[in-house]
Design goal:
about 350 residues; alpha/beta; 12 helices; about 40% helix
Length: about 350
Amino acid sequence: MSAHIRPAVTTLPAYIPGARPARADVAKLSSNEMPYPVQDSVLEAATTAARSAHRYPEMTGDALRAALAARHGLSAEAIAVGNGSTALIQHLLDTVCDDGDDVVMPWRSFEAYPICVAVAGARAVTVPLTAGARQDVDALVGALTPRTRLLMVCTPNNPTSTALSAAELGDLLERVSQDVVVMVDEAYLDFVTDPAVGDATALLAAHPNLVVSRTFSKAHALAGMRVGYLMGDSRLMGAVRSVATPFGVSLPAQAAALAALKPQALAETARRAGLVAAERDRVVAALRGSGWDLPDVQGSFYWLAVGRDTTALARHCAEAGILVRPFAGEGVRVSVGTPEENDRVLGALASWRSRA
């Protein structure tokens, strides 16, 4: 074929999704999914909406944006919704970056970030995490140059599960020029239990260059529906909406997200997130008690920094009927599952240590 393909596309790193089980008895802890199914009221709303699938949904999700605005105390113009938060991050980069611009990010972090940056024609400037697998605010600010258009952070960070404190978020924003967009990805904020951890929405009013990313995929248990949203300056969000794919959130997905924002559904989401956090803390305490060295954990997953043993550990877990997410040469991310699944992980990791 003679069609031209952009070099930036042909050289993209591969996005590796979490492995999928081939048998029903395999625990899938490789994709940061909720161990609980969609709530009945949310499923009913999506099913009802699907009966009108011959009609287009609202193009920019006006009803959903209004509901999100009411929840967060913003105007609907300050919100953009899209086909998952990853798609919206891509739209944001496409909005603010020209060819050759720089985007500063911590690394390791969410593996889609450098892919999205390359697709936008920009250059990813990666800043190493600290020895404690945390994002280094001083180093991130120090990496900014006149070429920087956007700085992104993920808190809690995927895959290490460490989170920035409110003080760190405030310090970061105070030190970044207003002409640099700061994108804070809070996909896992619902699982945070440390009161010192920051909520970036509290800083939106004081920092017009701040954009906060959220998703319905995690705590709301709607990963398969693909709904996310950005919050930020109305002018910037309007530009993002103009770049986004028209009708990018399907009719059932918009209905499901609206139902998930009802008070009773939100209360159940908070209850379930609390159960996941409690299981996470139980597992992490057991692992630390048996000699594993884990960083602070605030997401719905935990990080085992096993370096060159990563592939072998992932294989060992797979042989025990547990799928985890390996990052070759760095470590293994394990999502929190049901108590039974988590006990299986503890057994597999105990046998790994005894064998090692």
